[in-house]
Write a structure and sequence with these properties.
The protein is an all-alpha fold and 156 residues long. Helix 3 packs across helix 4. The longest helix is centred in the C-terminal third of the chain and has 48 residues.
Length: 156
């Protein structure tokens, strides 16, 4: 719309300083800022109203159809992006969330049963090891003690 560079803005500022004067320049800039803000607000409101009217008239649907016809690869990529967005947005209250909760319950049951079976196996192995140790101890107690072998220092 307006193509103003830094040079043009500097020239406008110098002219405004000379014409208006340094005393009233801040008030002028404030008024200009308020006017520009109001103009932008009106432009934004007009743009929203035009978009709403186009949506109500169905122009967006026609535009999407034409876009799909002229650029099928882009439309396919838009479909892929939409699918990716739907995969990344997870709703735990949906059926998938219920299924996930059921799987979590099954996982906990499996872990509990595995822990119980492991504890029983370890207890059984400990009892077997204790029984073997007692049997070995009993076997040693039944044998008579063997004489101690003499060492060369004892012979001297």
């Amino acid at each position: 719309m307006f193509d103003l560079g830094w040079g043009e803005l500097l020239l406008i500022g110098i002219v405004a300083l000379i014409v208006v004067g340094p005393k009233d320049l801040p008030g002028l800039f404030r008024s200009i800022g308020q006017f520009v803000g109001k103009a932008k607000g009106m432009a934004r409101e007009f743009s929203r109203a035009m978009d709403q009217a186009a949506t109500d008239a169905g122009v967006k649907d026609v535009q999407n159809t034409i876009k799909a016809a002229t650029n099928p690869v882009g439309t396919a990529m838009d479909g892929v992006k939409d699918a990716a967005r739907s995969l990344t947005s997870f709703d735990p209250d949906s059926e998938t969330g219920k299924l996930s909760a059921e799987r979590e319950d099954a996982k906990k049951k499996i872990q509990a049963k595995t822990a119980r079976v492991t504890a029983e196996r370890l207890q059984r192995e400990a009892q077997e090891a204790l029984a073997k140790a007692e049997a070995a101890e009993a076997a040693l107690a039944d044998k008579p003690a063997a004489p101690a072998a003499s060492t060369p220092k004892d012979a001297e």
